[in-house]
Amino acid sequence: MSQFLLRHDNSPELFQFGQINEFALTKNSSIRLNSFNDSCSEYLRFYYILDGKFDWVINNQHHTLYPADLAIILPGQELYAEKGYLEIGSLYWLNLHLNLQGKEDKNSLSKWSSISSPEFSSIKKILFFNKVPVVSRLQDAGSVFSMLRNELFNQQIGYVTRVNHLLDELLILITRKLTQQNISQRDFPQTFLNLEEALRKDLSHHWTVEEMAALGGLGTTAFSDKVKSYTGFSPMSYLINIRISEAIKLLKKPNANVTDIALDTGFYSSQHFATTFKKLTGYTPSQFRKNNT
């Protein structure tokens, strides 16, 4: 298994794949000082350890990676070797051009992926809000990297479709493992607190139960049952309560526009906001503002 480095700007193997910036396999048989200090990137980066032990700093946190571990580095996050060099060992890495926070550009997911838009929205949120950037013992990812290498170098009929499918498979594998790993490491109350934090950070998004369940690492039925047991509300009712509580804070600011408040807190219109607000508080937004400012 020979090492290689493919870059989109100068490797013909990647010319068909605008979403892949870099794909490489390195086999480091000796320590080379200052060999791993490219700390920041605009790309979503995955590093899969084949053999060896690596001490890295990811987003200001120390992590030790072992064979079959996979590191996830989001755009803008730092990555560097804690010791200042890349340790002895072998690893794959893959840099993808995927916008995790805004709208997709010319390399949009829809141009190459079979993942539906709602499912990819869930994948992005799982990756973006994930607190632990290392997935442990993900052997299946190693198989995906190996198949990607074979498809790119052999270029048999259908290889473009196959490479795109393998990238989909990798994203799904990683996010499924993340949710399983996270749910096994903490009880539901902590999961619930993290979910609420994620919801409050993006209240203007029209969340679905499926998306919320994915962030909690559960299926929709199990998630709905746990939320009902924990709060007394269905997931959507609980979400509406969060929206209203945030709207109350904003209404106390005299210069905030009511329509802007409605849209910023995830309501479809000012009328939808007013109807829901009165149902839950007994006041219209204007009446509440008059009595509380």
Total count of helical runs of at least 4 residues: 10
Distance between the termini: 70 Å
Tell me the helix content. Answer: 40-55%
Question: What is the top-level CATH class of the largest domain?
Answer: Mainly Beta
What is the topology, as strand order, of the major beta sheet?
A: 1-2-10-4-7-11
Folded structure, characterized:
With 293 residues, the protein is of the alpha+beta class. The protein folds into two domains: 4-185, Jelly Rolls (Sandwich); 187-293, Orthogonal Bundle (Arc Repressor Mutant, subunit A), CATH 1.10.10.60. Helix content is 46%, strand content 18%. It is built from ten helices and eleven strands. The protein has helices at 117-129, 139-154, 159-185, 188-201, 209-216, 220-231, 235-251, 258-264, 270-281, 285-292; strands at residues 4-7, 20-28, 32-33, 44-52, 54-58, 61-65, 70-73, 79-81, 85-86, 89-96, 134-135. The strands form three sheets. It has a six-stranded antiparallel beta sheet. A hairpin with a 2-residue loop joins strand 5 (54-58) and strand 6. Helix 5 (209-216) packs across helix 6 (220-231). It is elongated, with a radius of gyration of 23 Å. The mean pLDDT is 85.
